[in-house]
Structures are given as structure tokens and as C-alpha cells.
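Standup notes
- DV: blocked on the single-chain target, sequence here:
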Amino acid sequence: MSLIQVSDLSFTYEGSYEPVFEHASFQIDTDWKLGFVGRNGRGKTTFLNLLRKQFEYTGSITASVEFDYFPFAVEEPERMTVEVLEHLPGLADVPFWQVKKELSRLQVTEDVLYRPFATLSNGEQTKVLLAMLFLREGRFLLIDEPTNHLDREAREMVSEYLNSKKGFIMVSHDRKFLDGCVDHILSINRNNIEVQKGNFSSWYENKRLQDEFELAENERLKKDIGRLQESARQSRRWADKVESTKIGRNPRKEEISIDTRAYIGEKSRRMQQRRKNLEHRQEHAIEEKQGLLKNLEQVDSLKLIPLKHHASRLTALDQVTVFYDEMPICQEVSFELMQGDRIFLQGKNGSGKSSILKLILGKDLCGEALNHTGKVYLASGLKISWVPQDTAFLQGSLRDYAVACGVEERLFMTLLRKLDFSREHFEKPMETYSEGQKKKVLIACSLCEQAHLYIWDEPLNFIDVYSRIQIENLILQFAPTLLVVEHDEAFSEKVATRVVRLWRMGM
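- DV (later): unblocked, structure below
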């Protein structure tokens, strides 16, 4: 057991006036299974890179362990997977039986080792690389968003696998996944960084209770300040009135006696002291109030105005099979999507979920014409809003993107502000955004569009927990018709009205 000690850490990206970290101090035990949470753009991946000494910073980070980062680029991915593993540093002395045993814990079959690494699915690559990193002795793993290419079953499996390990920091926004495999939470808040023992649910409940306490305390202090201000004003009036009679003419007597003047002077002194005491109490209450709400996350409600279609059935598939290079990728798929439905497509990686979405979208929207058998029905005049899985095409300014998409710029920017975009980010090119911020751009654009049907392909990849909750509440409030591919179990359980299961051919 050893510690990773962070002391007075400060870091700002070149060209930015907004610091990512400012005088942050905390410590981490290298035996912990640490979940790393925070809103998009707060610096989670940046901190992992600082641990790896990728950037210059002020302050100090001391550790007695070496760091490994996931995901990492594989050199020569066209080589057989077993050859890739043999050339990874630190694995030369690991017996082959141990490699196979570790992979079997993630249900990776031995035949995967004898296929080119580049031909493995994203899920298979994730499992192989995680297993190999944990085989390296004396390392502390920095795991960045491991779930983004994992289906629901694979997430459960990887969560169980990680729960059997120790010594890692993992960035993830999947609530159930985190609950299954971490014992501490490192959270980047609005104004500080804190470490707390427990899983995500216990941390989130503590955060909720703290926010509720601070909101109630804030309201109490606002009322106290109001009462103190009124008392101070009244005391000031009384003090000034008494002070004015200390020296002067008594309207009922021609002269004021010395005794009376002394009495009035003492009374004035007391009134002035009372006024000062009230002002001090008011200043103290204001200071207390300013110490509250610094870490309260503003989760503003989002709005959506879906269109009403004249038909109750918007789309339907009847025994549809999609083909790539004349190879079927899914078994016959049949379902109807009625107005008001929120259908989630689920299935293992490679079962054709995204292909079904693209088939419904057609070439005009997704740019792909897919070969298929079976029947696809679309209601006439159907307007569809589409959130693709890929964000790599996002480049240039937000304003130019809003114009290209035909959405109102002011509404678009307002939605992004509610999704925790800073005004500074409005002026940055989109290619500099984090993956979570890019995903928010796509979602905000979709929310600006009035449509009969919203088709979203893994919309929550990289999206922080607070924004996921915002989107959940939006869907439950405005009840759009949705067809979604999403592996976040907590999200689908909350908003789905129906789940359609897809199966890969041969399974």
C-alpha cells in the first residue's frame, strides 16, 4: 500500500484564461478501486495525463507506482493479437497459461489470440487490453471511459472483473457500472476536488443531501440577512434621532440639563453600538451564505417540442435482415414503433443495432444505402431528428454548425449553456472539445429540431451523469417518440417503454 499525493496542483491550458485546476490538494491510496466523476470538460482526462507527466503544471504529484493508461494505441494492429501481446512491455515474462486464464475471466476465447488485432470488435479489444494491463506487475491503472464500446452484457462482465482487482482510477459515467466495481469516488466539483469512500450511489446520495442542506441553509440565511438589514435600518434611524438631541435645544425647555445631556449621550452610544453589532452579524451571515452553494451543480431543465404526426404508426419492420458485403449481420427483425413509444434496441456488439437505425433513416440522413431483405415501413411526411454515434466530423465554430444544421443559434447556445458549456467554449473550435462536449453538441442540435421521431445512436457515450439525468427528465416530461441504441442500464430502465432485442446471425 502506498499513496499518490497531490499538493497545490494548478494547471491551465495554453491560450486559455480559465484554469482546469487551481491549488488542488488530495491523496489517493494505490489499493483503492477509484471511480472518477465530474461534468464534461472539468479535467478528468487532463488529470490522468498530468499523472503521466504529459503536461507542465505547478504544485507537486508524488507517487511510488508507475502508471498505465487505457485506452492506448496498439502499434501494428494488423499483427496477430498474440504477437501484439508479446511485444507489450512487461509481459515478456508472463507465462502463456496466465494470459489465457486472464482472458477467460472476461470470456475472451483463445481463438481471438490468433486473429489480427485490427479485426477484433471494439468490445474484444477493450477486454484484451484491460486484461493485459492488469497482468503487468506494480502498475497503477488509469482507465478512461472503458464502457463506450461495450454492450450491456459486456459491461456487467467487465464491472465484475474490475471489482476483483484493485489499484486503479476509472473515469466512467455509467452509474450501475460504477456501483459494481469501485470502493471510492474521486469527484471534480465546481470549486474543489474531493475523495469519498463508497460507490457511486452512496456518493451521489451524500451529494444530494449536502446540496439540500446548503439550499435550506441558504434560504434561512437570506431571511436572517433581510431581518438584520431591517433591524439595522431601524437602529440607524433611532441612533441618528437620539444623536441629534445630544446637543441642541429642547422644544419644551429652553436649556438642557447636564444630567439629561449625559443620559442622552449614553443612550446614543448604546444605540450606535447596537447598530454596529447588527451590521457585524449581518456581515457574518453574508460570509456564511457566500460559503454555501459553491459546489451546487445547476441542472437546469431542458425543453423539447416534438411534432404530432397524423398517423399512429410511424415505422415498422417486418422480418428485416441487413447485409454487409453480402453477409447477413442480424437475424430477422420485426417490430412496430407507434407514436409515443420509446423503443430501445439492445443486443451484443455486432448484432446490427446501428444498422437498423441507418436503414430507417435512409441514405438521405445517414449517407449509407444498406442492402436488406424484409419490409421497412415509414409513415408519409415523417420528420426525423438524428444523433449519430460518431463525433469525428465536428469541426469549426458552433455558430457555423448551427447555420449548417438549420437550427436557431440562440436556442442552440441556450441548450448548451444548460448542459454546462462555459461561454469560453462558445469561442473555441469544436475539434478542441472533449468527447463528452462533442456529444452534447449533437444532442443540443437534435433538441432544437422539431421532429416526429428522434433516432439516437448511443447518445450518452462520454456524457456526464448530471447531463444524463437532465436528458432523462426531458424525455419523461415531453414524451417524444424515440428509437434509441443505448447501453446505460439505469437510463434505459428509467425512460424506455419497450426493449427490442437483436441477435447476431448464428447466435
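- Follow-up: The longest strand covers residues 313-324.
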